[in-house]
Every structure is written in structure tokens, then in C-alpha cells.
Design a protein that fits this description.
By secondary structure, the chain is α+β, with helices and mostly antiparallel strands. The chain contains 8 helices and 18 strands.
């Protein structure tokens, strides 16, 4: 689906070595003798890798379920990718400038949520940003800083307020021929939610669903309390700068440190502010924990775009998300802002205790 260049969500990485950091608990007993263990199944999908880790004592017995679950990602990809001409998103984009069209129900649900996050974030998250992303070369091109005229022209067809959207009837119209939607900032989270629901319906109580850092943690890792995942260091000074313990929660991280363009001594990241057309700045990464992966996915982008101060204000005012924000401080130690409900769940990695300032909000 969305290639890794489009949106970098792989900032939260699950690692087997981190599981030892968790405390004791009762793991899934999946039938058959032997001790339950974490068994991973992987597939290449949506422009990245999906990993499904099931806690089981019989890997053969759960293999059919794992295959069905991983195929679910390909289903989501077939609907929401903007890299083919046959997806539902491609059909909607192809109808830009024409009459309103009925949207496939799953896609309509994602569009509905996207619109809600757009409104709540003041436009920091906006699925109509696609023309700007293409202009900057972060989608299907070579990254570059666009000229001012081209940037203003692209901005004329960007903005959720321009979309004619009927959430009750599930009909959408892109009134201008150049308008495009891109679900890359929310579709991976939706795909994770879909797999998590499938697993729960099948009776699975302990699993980790990971699509390049968009995660859903079901139950517990083998013999431990919850799942412990790492928040990546943007400067790659180590595998992770902090760990986060998850139990029946979802997480997503957005950051600007994988794809960027440099010009005139300045570095421009790939996450664009839809309101200005320019790359967002002020944070190195934004991690969001929520009950739904799609919510975490969209809000991690929104908070990244909002920047350190506004992101803290918005996150603290909402009871459906909690955030961890990494703010670079030139010439000094970076600040890791941790929302107070997450403080007991976050641990700074030993290698970063002297290079990070941990603050709560």
C-alpha cells in the first residue's frame, strides 16, 4: 500500500529481547502440551512488513488463523492503497470533479474517522494532503523543495473543508479535478484494528499485531504483564530510546527522520502541515496510545504537525489518547514529554539517561 516513503510509522518497534522487561502474568493457553511461547508470522503488505505474534503452545494449530489474519492486511490494502488504479481510493480520486459517489462501507468508516480527527486537530491531519505530498516528491517521486508558485497551486486543492462529505449516506464528492485523498496516515491503523478484531473473534487473548509500528497489544506476552515495545531513537544512536508497556491498547508513532530532503543547509521532513504546505517541525517524533489503532495512527500525525506546545495541550485535553513527544533541543539534551497516565509505562533506555530530559504533562 503506502510505501515507507509516504508515511513513516515504523518508529515503534517490537523486539523479542524487550519481552524480558515485562512482569509476570498468565499467558494464553492455546491447547496442547508445552509452555506457551511467542510465535511470529510475517507478510509484506501495505508498502511495509506486518508481523503477527501469537502466544501459543502449538504453532501449527494457529497457523491457519495467522494466515487468515495476515490476508486481512492485503484486503485493507486492496481498498485503500493509492499505488494502484483499482482500489476504492483510486476510484474516488478518479471521480474528482464529478458528482458525489457512494463510498464502500469500510472506506467510508475510515473517511468518517479521518474527518473527525481533522476537525478536532484544527486541520493538522487532513487526508486531502496528497497533492502536496506528491509535489514535494515524497509520494512517487524524488524528494525536492517545490517552488512557491507550484506550492500555492497545490494548496488550492487541499483542505478537508472543500470535500462534500455525507457521513450518514456515505457519499463523497471531490469538487475540484485536482483533488486527491490519501489514507496513508490512517489506513495502517485501520488494518491493525481489523486484524485485532478477527483475532478476538477467534478467541485469541494474547497477541501482538504490528504493521511497521502501528500496533495492537492483546493480553500479555508469554509469562509477563503486557507487551513491552521500544520507541525508536531518531538519531539511530541505539535500537530504542525508551520502552513502553502495552496491555489491551494500541500505539502509533510518526516521525520525520527516515525520508527528508535537504536544501540550502536546511532539512525538510516528509510529514507536511496541510495548512501551510510545508513540512512540520518542532518534534522528532510523536507517539500516541489509544484503544483503537486507527485513532492512534491519525493522531500521531496530527500531534506531530501541531508541534510541542499545541500537541501537549490537545493531547492532555482528550481522554481517548495519551502521548509521548520527543522534542529536539539544539545544543542541549532532547526532551521526552510523557503524558502523565503513561508515566508508569515508560522507561528511558539506560543508554539515553544522560542524553534525555524526561518531563510529564
Amino acid at each position: 500500500m503506502m510505501q515507507p516513503r509516504r508515511r513513516v510509522q515504523g518508529m515503534v518497534v517490537a523486539a523479542a529481547c524487550l519481552l524480558a522487561l515485562a512482569a509476570a502474568t498468565v499467558p494464553l493457553r492455546a491447547g496442547g502440551p508445552g509452555s506457551p511461547r511467542a510465535v511470529a508470522f510475517r507478510t509484506r503488505t501495505m508498502g511495509s512488513w506486518a508481523t503477527l505474534t501469537l502466544v501459543t503452545s502449538d504453532s501449527s494449530a494457529v497457523a491457519p488463523l495467522a494466515r487468515t489474519a495476515l490476508l486481512s492486511f492485503h484486503h485493507t490494502d486492496s481498498l485503500m492503497t493509492n499505488w494502484t488504479t483499482t482500489s476504492e481510493v483510486a476510484r474516488l480520486n478518479g471521480a474528482a470533479g464529478g458528482p458525489a459517489t457512494l463510498v464502500e462501507p469500510e472506506v467510508a468508516g475510515v473517511v468518517r474517522l479521518a474527518g473527525e480527527v481533522t476537525a478536532a486537530s484544527g486541520g493538522a491531519f487532513d487526508i486531502t494532503v496528497e497533492p502536496l505530498v506528491r509535489l514535494w516528491g515524497f509520494l512517487g517521486g524524488a524528494p525536492r523543495v517545490p517552488d512557491a508558485v507550484a506550492l500555492e497551486r497545490a494548496r488550492e486543492v487541499v483542505g478537508w473543508e472543500r470535500v462534500e462529505w455525507d457521513p450518514e449516506g456515505g457519499r463523497l464528492r471531490l469538487p475540484a479535478a485536482g483533488m486527491r485523498i490519501d489514507l496513508g496516515g490512517i489506513a495502517k491503523g485501520y488494518g491493525v484494528d481489523r486484524v485485532a478484531a478477527l483475532l478476538r473473534a477467534a478467541g485469541v487473548t494474547d497477541a501482538l499485531v504490528d504493521l511497521t509500528g502501528n500496533m495492537a497489544a492483546l493480553g500479555d506476552a508469554p509469562g509477563h504483564a503486557g507487551w513491552v515495545v521500544g520507541i525508536r531513537d531518531p538519531r539511530d544512536r541505539g535500537p530504542y530510546l525508551a520502552t513502553l508497556r502495552l496491555h489491551e491498547r494500541c500505539v502509533s508513532t510518526s516521525g520525520d527522520y527516515v525520508q527528508f530532503v535537504s536544501e540550502g543547509g536546511r532539512r525538510y521532513g516528509h510529514i507536511l502541515d496541510p495548512r501551510t504546505g510545508w513540512p512540520a517541525h518542532g518534534l522528532s517524533s510523536a507517539t500516541v496510545v489509544a484503544d483503537r489503532a486507527a485513532v492512534a495512527d491519525a493522531w500521531s500525525t496530527a500531534l506531530f504537525v501541531l508541534g510541542p506546545g499545541e500537541a501537549r495541550r490537545v493531547a492532555a485535553a482528550r481522554d481517548d489518547i495519551a502521548a509521548v513527544l520527543l522534542q529536539p533541543v539544539p545544543g542541549s539534551r532532547d526532551t521526552l514529554w510523557v503524558e502523565s497516565p503513561l508515566l508508569p509505562l515508560v522507561t528511558v533506555a539506560p543508554a539515553f539517561t544522560d542524553s534525555l530530559v524526561l518531563r510529564s504533562f
